[in-house]
Amino acid sequence: MGVLSTLIRGLRRGADRMSEFTSKRGSRTHNKGRGARPAGVLLSSRKFVAVKSMIPEFVVPNLEGFKLKPYVSYQAPAGSQPPLTAQSLFTEVVAPQIRRDLEGGSFSTEQLQRYGFQPTQDGRLFKLYPKNYVR
């Protein structure tokens, strides 16, 4: 169908039929929504049943007496610590464990998973995950 026939069809049927259907064009009970997931299920009888486990629950800590504000100015000075890299994380966390096991005589190349090495890395270096980072 061409552009001209689409325009003629729009003029013949009425211009508002061609416009986008929004929540303002529906009845008072119509709510088109904005893409949020439903917090329940729609039954075959067109009845909506709310499911408690599908309703999002926000866990907010108690900030009473908290001195920091939620805004950080762009004019704030840069941090004093260097950015955390894989090399620095290895030297701070894994290297002391390996050194201690070497001195104790319990180091084994078959048990590298203890230090965060994943066997699926195919010869690459150690890859450290947050679960291996001691805080």
Tally of DSSP helical segments: 3
Main sheet summary = 2 strands, antiparallel
For the record, give the distance between the C-alpha atoms at the N and C termini, rounded to a whole number. 65 Å
Determine the strand fraction and express it as a percent band. under 5%
H/E element order: HHEEH
Instruction: Trace the largest sheet across and list its strands.
Output: 1-2
Structural class: mainly alpha
- Our Rg estimate from Cα atoms comes to 30 Å
- The outline comes out as elongated
Mean pLDDT: 77
How many strands in all? 2
- Helix coverage percent of residues? 25-40%
Which regions contain 5 or more consecutive residues with pLDDT less than 50?
A: none
